[in-house]
User: What shape does this take?
Amino acid sequence: MSDPFVDTDVLIRLLTGDDLKKQAEAAALFEAVEAGRLTLAAPDTVIADAVYVLSSRRLYDKPRSDVAAMLSRLVSLPGFKVENRASVVRALDLYGATSLDFGDALIVASMEQRGSTILYSYDADFDRIPTVNRRLPGR
Assistant: This one.
């Protein structure tokens, strides 16, 4: 039998408390994960969506460092199987410490995991990352 998956909305309820009943339910779910009674799974897109929702000025407007800290704690739970966990954790660190958006931070983290230094991109934001050698396509 495979592990059950969790959606972004459960993480948002847990971390924001904007609906106290749902927050209590989500907290109970993740307490079971933390205690080892339950294993949950999620693709890395669930974390990316949570970063977007939590940091969006239109929605929750949480500081980048807070978003990174909240999600890093969850992603680090052994019973929470997030795809590409090592890259996601590193991307959250980068997201909290730089001005990179989470998608770009995940690219950098994935490159680091694979030992790659060359990135073809038109995005000059990567030029501030010392481990990235950005190249323009066609040049």
Observations:
- The longest strand covers residues 40-42.
- The CA atoms of residues 112 and 131 lie 8 Å apart.
- DSSP finds six helices and four strands in the chain.
- The beta strands are 40-42, 80-82, 118-120, 133-135.
